[in-house]
Design goal:
Radius of gyration: 38 Å
Low-confidence stretches: none
Number of helices: 46
CATH architecture of the domain at 2-33 and 411-592 and 649-671 and 1098-1253: Up-down Bundle
Shape: elongated
Structural class: alpha+beta
CATH superfamily of the domain at 2-33 and 411-592 and 649-671 and 1098-1253: Multidrug efflux transporter AcrB transmembrane domain
CATH topology of the domain at 2-33 and 411-592 and 649-671 and 1098-1253: Multidrug efflux transporter AcrB transmembrane fold
Length: 1258
């Protein structure tokens, strides 16, 4: 069938060219429209239930809210984990669903089950579904802060970006041609004088945190939330303005007014109503009753504006006055008792459980943009920044919005890293093709499949909704070399057929016969049909080899499936192009000249020069829009391309091709040696394969000889400890996240002090560009952080060359200066390099001096540090709940027992080698004042428990009674006792409770007041309480560390009945991945074997092809050892890709051996072993050029990945390393071992044929 497709395409060239042109145009359109992100969304499908229960302690929240919700959610279809967090005043329930569950289907199921459980929740408690976002949804963070401004130009000034010292007070004063390019500057980071006149002093705006928070909540937030792709905009820090009614209990007693009456009066004094309509004088009037607190009349608004007073301040004053005038009751004499008579009414801050700080300079108000699931992150961020630029113009003078975290930089760096690598790969592969073929047009045919195949892959990605990120582009990157293999072999084989035709004609002319010329079209079609089926099957096998990747689940699947998809798309596109457009291009371009010789050299020269330089000249003057910066490069590329197409070029015969002659000269001695000592060659190959066990397992783990060798030569154990294990190599996001663990009982005042001190220390490092610290939670369901949790986002200097340099000891240090320069040693092996993120975090040694890192400088008693990456941490916390590489979860019933077990286990693992820190969360570390109500005493006074608790809830804890309506803004009205009564234990006991008889009873008579320790927060998983231990490691061998930790904990800690340990974090991913691969890899291997057999119809050929796999593992394992890479999922994926490449190179090698053998046999030249040797020599040595080309393009195409630097490069290097090392050894072994095995097999076959011939009677 493949042969028929090739022939059909060659007979219908115009149709194929038109279809290919449409594909190219579609690919170009896709480049400008495909969604971009840094990494795939690794988050689980999750739905968050967020419930506010104001003023309630964690144990109350757990018993009354979280536990009913978690038990109900366990029954939701496809829910695999239900995780609960009970905190002061809040409940979070995270429902993690099975992979592949549609997020909106999951949300609808959760809503159904919420309806069932609603009746079991306390009155007035309403659970809410969190935003439709994921763990990577925090794409942009900003702060609203005071800045400096010029009082003479409160609306800002203008300047040209290219002329920063030229300022204009208004845009009208700027030159008309420059006005569109001017940028408006409203605020300045530092003080000084007005940049326009140099006279007026800049003034620092003095808006307080409540005013800045109001701007965030009621001006910025809703405008940003309305943008496409934004799920919500969360606020953190600052103060929420609150009307506080501070009741005096003595006055309550004097007027004999219960607290409940005050609540009812306040609620009843804040409302607007409608009275339908009235009809007067043929006109309809709608009737309103105006009774909102803080409502202003049009006259008050007008007067405020004329006086220059901010409207919000006028509203606040009016609200306070309205509250003070609320009538509670009338005295027996008819005198009204106002709220002002029994309470102080004031403005103050609402209770807050989080704050934000920037650069150690003080508190700011923060905003967090949470992106909706599945959106284009880069486009969302661009929209947000564009909208913020517009909104800034409406802010008060001096108020600025500053970017604190921006993921677009990471996205652009990641995509740029892979895009640059792709371009390098294409250039390198193109140069290799020219070098081997020595014919530019043939090289164009071979390389044409690269850009076209990549565009095809991008089109499919776009329409399947796969983002362009480091993994999806990485799938294309590791396919570049392989994609071109098929076209290379086809082009080279067409050269071979043309050479043979030339030889045939020459032989017939020498013999005096008139040769019959075969049409060139027939020769090229035959060449394509000869190798097409084998090439198609080899590419199909490469595709099938990636099936195990598609079977990966959870985080590993979400990480690598985009890579597998795009690699499959690329290979599929290359396969189709190889049997459609490539044969068509071969017919047109594999020739000595494109322009007819009959036209004459002058005409051809004129056409060639015109085609090369006229369009190039137009490109230099035509407007190109966004491509304008690439104008010169595009023009040069056009000239080179047309020159390659139109300039006459000779096709070299393989006999005189210098590259072929050099390769044959190099290979022939090794071939002859291997064929002479065939058995010794096979034995050495087996020993070489076995040697890979030493770096893989470690010398001591090698059976039989390993322990004895390690004991005899102790250095061997140090040199060969075995490869480490980790789930994934670290992804350099370009930024850091500082997440220390503090005392769970920390106050908000101490938290602010700690945050400012740590931020100031971090900001003092020269590599740190900006610091944005958050302690506690932002007002979003995606942030279940207690007040003790610090999250400091550290934006690092993006240009790593500006970082401090670390000196490196080099072999040439003692050389004279001239020799270092003359040999280029200093250029090849620089004496210094920028420090790494690891060294920035933990310090390093330089010239014998220890340079402290962030971890040593930012050190406070009682604070355990953790340094990680922003995206990775959010994914880990929402997937496993663990923010460090390893977490230990202890499950059980009693929080005190769980806390004790956590302390003991942490003490055991803390002393293990490779442990940086092990911090157990305190399950009983919170401070409680418990009112234990005496039911008998309450009954004596006719009081119900609820009535006593109402006093505790309202008067002591404070309760928001109602909310004012102030235009778009809403502020709470809070009722509580005086602070001096709430902050003093003795005063608390004297709090009065009104009885039904009108008497006032001290709270101490109704309840015992005790100060106790209790849970600061309660965590549960699948409705079981848990205690967590966060473990940060200095080693990257996570599996090895966990195996040692498991053994130590099992020996030292005995668990009570009903308690168990779960090892979490990266370890969970590693275990799940290993389980899946153990099933799927053998299945894929069997499928590949069957495909090979169905293609070759020979178990012998199948076995020979598969021999390339163990040969390749030799190089793959040794290169991992040399580069000091751990075995990770990225390495496994690289080895899976390597197995497919092995099958392809093995099939091509065997194809040439079989073709040579069949040709010799068909010509009657297979009569003895000497003929067999020459046949194998012809198939191996004489066809070394195409075999080397296919491997060289793949090998050299992967090398840029090994040298890549930047975001995502760590993962790509670990993908490419085993492929590069494995290709090298498998190719060498195939060149040496395959001919030997083939010789033995065909020797046996010849012996069988000869024996059969002798048996047959004459």
């Amino acid at each position: 069938m493949i042969a028929r497709i090739i022939e059909y395409c060659c007979r219908n060239r115009l149709l194929v060219v038109i279809l290919t042109s449409f594909i190219i145009l579609g690919g170009v359109w896709t480049i400008y429209n495909i969604r971009l992100d840094a990494i795939p969304d690794l988050s689980d499908v999750q739905v968050i239930i967020f419930t506010e229960y104001p003023g309630q302690a964690p144990q109350v929240v757990e018993d009354q809210v979280t536990y009913p919700l978690t038990t109900a959610m366990l029954s939701v279809p496809y829910a695999k984990v239900v995780r609960g967090y009970s905190m002061f005043g809040y409940s979070f329930v995270y429902i993690i669903f099975e992979d592949g569950t549609d997020i909106y289907w999951a949300r609808s199921r959760v809503l159904e089950y919420l309806n069932y459980v609603a009746s079991r929740l306390p009155r007035g408690v309403t659970p809410q579904i969190g935003p439709d976002a994921t763990g990577v949804g925090w794409v942009y963070e900003y702060s609203v802060r005071n800045g400096y401004y010029c009082p003479d130009h409160p609306d800002g000034m203008y300047r040209h970006p290219d002329e920063p010292k030229t300022w204009y007070p208004t845009i009208d004063e700027a030159p008309e041609l420059d006005r569109e390019k001017l940028e408006r500057i409203r605020t300045f980071e530092h003080g000084g004088r007005c940049p326009w006149d140099g006279k007026t002093d800049l003034v620092l705006a003095e808006y307080d945190l409540s005013e800045l928070r109001s701007l965030q909540d009621w001006y910025l937030r809703y405008e940003l939330t309305a943008l496409e792709g934004v799920s919500e905009v969360a606020a953190v820090g600052g103060f929420v303005r609150q009307y506080q009614v501070v009741v005096d209990p003595d006055r309550l007693l004097a007027y004999n007014i219960p607290l409940s009456q005050i609540k009812m009066a306040i609620r009843a004094s804040n409302n607007d109503v409608g009275g339908r309509v009235l009809e007067m004088s043929e006109t309809e009037y709608m009737v309103r009753g105006r009774g909102y607190l803080a409502a202003l009349t049009p006259e008050q608004v007008r007067d405020a504006r004329e006086a220059g007073r901010p409207i919000w301040r006028v509203r606040s004053d009016q609200g306070l006055e309205d509250l003070r005038k609320i009538v509670i009751r009338a005295t027996p004499t008819g005198t009204p008792v106002y709220l002002r008579d029994i309470a102080d009414v004031q403005l103050g801050p609402e209770l807050r459980r989080g704050l934000a700080e920037a650069d150690g300079e003080g508190e700011v108000v923060g905003g967090i943009v949470v992106m909706r699931f599945g959106e284009n992150a880069l486009q969302v961020i661009r929209n947000v920044k564009h909208k913020l630029d517009q909104l800034k113009q409406g802010l008060p003078p001096g108020v600025d919005v500053v970017t604190e975290y921006d993921r677009s930089g990471l996205i652009e760096r990641a995509v740029a890293t892979l895009t640059e690598t792709l371009i390098k790969e294409m250039i390198v592969v193109g140069l290799v093709c020219i070098l081997f073929l020595l014919h530019a047009r043939s090289e164009l045919v071979a390389v044409f499949v690269l850009p076209t195949g990549v565009l095809c892959a991008l089109i499919i990605m776009h329409y399947l909704g796969i983002n362009a990120n480091i993994m999806s582009l990485g799938g294309i990157a590791i396919s570049i070399g392989v994609m071109v293999d098929s076209s290379i072999v086809m082009v080279e084989n067409s050269h071979k057929h043309l050479d043979r035709e030339e030889d045939r004609i020459h032989a017939e002319l020498s013999a005096g016969r008139t040769p019959v010329h075969r049409p060139r079209v027939e020769l090229i079609i035959d060449a394509a049909k000869e190798v097409g089926p084998t090439l198609f099957f080899s590419l199909l096998i490469i595709t099938v080899s990636f099936l195990p990747v598609f079977a990966l689940g959870e985080e590993s699947g979400r990480m690598f499936k985009p890579l597998a998809f795009t690699k499959t798309f690329s290979m599929a596109a290359a396969s189709v192009l190889a049997i459609t457009i490539i044969p068509v291009l071969m017919l047109s371009l594999i020739t000595s000249r494109v322009l007819p010789k009959e036209w004459g050299w002058k005409r051809n020269l004129l056409i060639t020069l015109s085609a090369m330089f006229l369009p190039a000249g137009l490109l230099l003057v035509a407007p190109l829009g966004r491509l304008d910066v690439y104008r010169n490069g595009i023009a040069i590329a056009w000239i080179v391309l047309l020159g390659m197409l139109l300039v006459p070029q000779k096709i070299f015969h393989e006999r005189v091709n210098p590259i072929s002659k050099v390769l044959q000269w190099m290979y022939n001695p090794f071939f002859s040696l291997a064929m002479r000592f065939r058995k010794t060659t096979l034995l050495l190959a087996v020993l070489l394969v076995l040697s890979s066990a030493v770096p893989l397992m470690g010398i001591r783990q090698v059976p039989v000889i390993g322990p004895q060798a390690a004991d005899a030569v102790p250095q061997l154990a140090r040199w060969f400890p075995g490869l480490g294990r980790e789930f994934m190599p670290p992804l350099d996001e370009g930024d850091l996240l500082y997440m220390p663990t503090t005392d769970p009982g920390i106050s908000i005042t101490k938290a602010r002090e700690l945050l400012q001190q740590t931020d100031a220390l971090i900001a003092s490092f020269p590599e740190v560009h900006h610091v944005f610290g958050k302690i506690g939670r932002a007002e979003t369901a995606t942030d279940p952080a207690p007040l003790s949790m610090v999250e400091t986002t550290i934006m690092l200097e993006p240009d790593r060359q500006k970082w401090r340099k670390r000196h490196l000891d080099r072999f040439y240090d003692s050389w004279p200066e001239w020799l270092k320069v003359w040999t280029g040693a200093r250029w090849l092996f620089p004496q210094e390099r920028p420090i790494t993120i690891e060294e920035l975090s933990y310090g390093y040694e330089d010239r014998g001096q220890h340079i402290p890192g962030l971890n040593e400088v930012v050190s406070f008693p009682g604070v355990t540090n953790a340094w990680t990456m922003p995206i990775k941490t959010r994914i880990d916390m929402l997937s496993t709940g663990i923010k460090t590489p390893v977490g230990i979860k202890i499950m059980g019933d009693s929080l005190s027992v769980l806390g004790d077990l956590a302390e003991r286990i942490a003490a055991e693992v803390r002393v293990l080698p490779g442990t940086l820190s092990a911090f157990p969360e305190k399950t009983v570390g919170g401070n409680y004042v418990d009112f234990i109500i005496n039911r008998d005493e309450a009954a004596r006074y006719g009081l119900r428990i609820e009535e006593v608790e109402d006093v505790i809830l309202s008067a002591l804890g404070g309760m928001n009674i109602t909310w004012t309506v102030e235009g778009l803004e809403r502020y709470p009205v809070n009722l509580r006792y005086k602070r001096e009564l709430r902050d003093n234990l003795t005063a608390l006991k004297r709090t009065l409770v009104s009885t039904p008889s009108g008497a006032q009873v001290p709270l101490a008579q109704l309840a015992d007041v005790k100060v106790l320790k209790g849970p600061p927060q309660i965590k549960s998983e699948n409705a079981r309480k848990t205690a967590w231990i966060y473990v940060d490691l200095t080693t990257t061998d996570v599996v090895g560390w966990i195996n040692r930790a498991k053994a130590r904990v099992a020996e030292a800690v005995e668990l009570p009945p009903g308690y168990n340990i779960v090892w979490s974090g990266q370890y969970e991913y590693i275990q799940e991945t290993n389980r899946r691969l153990a099933v799927v890899v053998p299945f894929a291997a069997v499928l590949i074997i069957l495909l090979l057999y169905f293609h070759s119809r020979s178990w012998f050929r199948t076995g020979v092809v598969l021999l390339a796999v163990p040969f390749s593992l030799v190089g793959a394992i040794w290169i991992l050892y040399v580069l000091d890479y751990n075995v990770s999922l990225a390495v496994y994926i690289g080895m899976i890709a390597l197995a497919g490449l092995d099958a392809e190179t093995g099939m091509v090698m065997l194809l040439y051996l079989e073709n040579s053998y069949d040709r010799f046999k068909g010509e009657g030249r297979m009569n003895n072993l000497d003929d067999l040797w020459h046949a194998i020599h012809d198939g191996a040595v004489m066809r070394i050029r195409p075999k080397t080309m296919t491997v060289a393009t793949t090998f050299i195409g992967l090398v840029p990945l090994l040298w890549a630097a930047g975001t995502g490069a760590d993962t790509m290097r670990r993908l490419a390393a085993p492929m590069i090392g494995g290709l090298a050894t498998s190719f060498i072994m195939e060149l040496v071992i395959y001919p030997v095995i083939f010789f033995f097999a065909k020797q046996w076959e010849l012996w069988q044929e000869r024996r059969a011939a002798e048996i047959v009677p004459a």
